[in-house]
Amino acid sequence: MPLRPLLALVLAFCLTFITAPSSASAAFVLGNERGNSDFGDIVNSGQANNCPVIKSGSEGSINADGKFSDLCLQPTEIFVKVAGSKRRQAEFVPAKIISPATNTSIDQVYGDLSGGKFAAQGGIDFALITVLAPNSEEFPLVFSVKDMVADGGKSISPGAEFTGSTLTPSYRTGDFLDPKSRAKDTGVDYAQGLVALGGDDEDLAKENIKRDLTGNGTITLSIESVDTATNEFAGSFVAIQPSDNDLGSRDPVDVKITGNLYGRKS
């Protein structure tokens, strides 16, 4: 019967196809050739959020001219500036990160170092974060180093500081639909049902009219360790920037973000 040899060949092929991937998959995950031997130790552990580190106290100096890459900023503390009173000025108070739990770092940022300035040009240069203040108020924010220009001199060495400005984009885009189904870029940007309540009211106008509002922040990169053999550097950073303005309906507050820094000169 001519079909039996054909069926036997198909069956043998299927068995080979089914059994081969199991060993191949194991080799992919555990094999040294793929560099995934530590995958099981990192997945679901939160360690992927950590910036790389170099030996603490490494001395040396890197010429701050050329290009930089792999710039990583990992927030460790966030403070929100709360309103003061007649007897007390406004001050930064510690806030708790509530979302996301472990995906807050900025990473793989690259750019130009010409003239001793860190000028960011791209990469994963922003992260959406929500924090909880001691008064139980939630503050969404965009932790950002977009358009960062930080000046600090001609060399990257322990003790050097690079200070400059950053751009903070809107937390939501113009396509965001709120509970009234309004969005700036979809042709439905005004809730007509609110007109009868007083269309000239300033507070209502903020809710009715949606706008993409960016902000400006400041940042200081502090260099603490340098490895001249690999052109790597590490340290800390302090960034102050505005929180989310909810497309113009709320007044932003100042947020201070501190954390770990890592980078490499290309």
Descriptive overview:
This protein is mainly β and 266 residues long. The protein has 2 domains: 3-39; 48-173 and 212-265, Porin. 15% of the residues lie in helices and 41% in strands. It is built from 3 helices and 13 strands; from the N terminus they run H-H-E-E-E-E-E-E-E-E-E-E-H-E-E-E. The strands form 2 sheets. The chain has an 8-stranded antiparallel β-barrel with strand order 2-4-5-8-10-11-12-13. It has a two-stranded antiparallel sheet with strand order 1-9. The termini are far apart.
Helices and strands, with pairings:
Blueprint lengths: L2 H28 L8 H4 L19 E2 L3 E16 L8 E9 L6 E7 L4 E8 L1 E7 L5 E7 L1 E6 L3 E2 L4 E8 L33 H7 L6 E13 L4 E11 L11 E12 L1
In brief:
By secondary structure, the chain is mostly beta strands. It has two domains: 37 residues; 180 residues, Porin, CATH 2.40.160.
Straight-line N-to-C gap: 68 Å
Task: Specify Rg, calculated over alpha carbons.
Answer: 26 Å
The major β-sheet equals: 8 strands, antiparallel, barrel
CATH fold group of the largest domain: Porin
Question: Which shape, going by the Cα principal axes?
Answer: extended
Observed structural traits:
two-stranded antiparallel ribbon, Porin, 266 residues, mainly beta, 13 strands, eight-stranded antiparallel β-barrel, 3 helices
